[in-house]
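haha ok so turns out i had the wrong file open the whole time. this is the CORRECT one, sorry everyone. sequence first:
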Amino acid sequence: MEWIEKSQPVMVTGATGYVAGWIVKELLERGFTVHATVRNPKDTNKTQHLSDLAASSPGTLKLFKVDLLEEGSFAEAMQDCALVYHTASPFTSNYSDPQKELIDPAVNGTRNVLLQASKTSSVKRVVLTSSCAAIYTDASEVAKTPKGILTEEIWNTTASLSHQPYSYSKTLAEKEAWNLVQGQNQWDLVVVNPSFVMGPSLNPKYSTSESIHILRQMTDGTMKMGVPNLAIGVVDVRDLAMAHFEAGMRKQAHGRNIINGSNTSMLEMAQILHRHFGKNHPIPQKALPKWLLMLVGPLINKSITRKFIQNNIGHIWKADNSKSIRELGISYRSLEETMVDSFNAL
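then structure:
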């Protein structure tokens, strides 16, 4: 007998999201019934690609209207589900009130989903989409870790409302999840901690993903003078969807799981794109000097503070993905394949 039965539906929150779409696709192709929660099921700009996927798959899609911040909103969608994927959480660098736009939806949304899981007797496991941002804030911290590499044991202790509030929101939301799992013994929690997600969007025209936004800026001339030499990890959205799938389906999966395909930088990402598409598109191939970023960064985007630039530009970023390979069976695509496919989808 399978640990998760195909006769039971699987719930995916934030189903119109960049990552969630690929998780839904994987589940539908394997014949599962997916209870997909969305803000507005009637907004076909956001949902049509999911309906199209369902039409050509053996699985079944059911859309449910929910409000992330409303307690009890997930009750109908979660009914009879053995497995819940909670991916819905805001990811943006364009905010005016970080508490209201980042922290509250991330923490309260997680709380509402997990409290509902405790009230829904069919639920055996919740897979939470957290982030490497719950492990670290700035690339400069990597060198200070015990082995110069980020691992699942490390927690972010440096983000705050005023410095990298997105990282702060992911840290608080994941901590809330680990607190809530303690109070019951019906369901267990597996956490997925991806690095920066790239790769083709299933709905590029209407995607609000920060990843797609950055890819556009790299290729439409916005960054033609050069890119910030920002140290980051990158994972392909398709590999991340597979990691979620395995985190739900493998009974032995547990704890936090770093999902990272490449220890890299924005400069290397741009150089790959330039090599393939630079003849016809204004893609940068050199880094902006740090002093110039210090001058113009804060003017372009308020999240690019001088502190952010100091702590992230020109550093080395490294994360240990061996647990995901060993326990979830993930094999990662190359950065080249990810960047080329991302651009072609756009």
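The two ends are 42 Å apart (CA to CA).
again sry for the mixup
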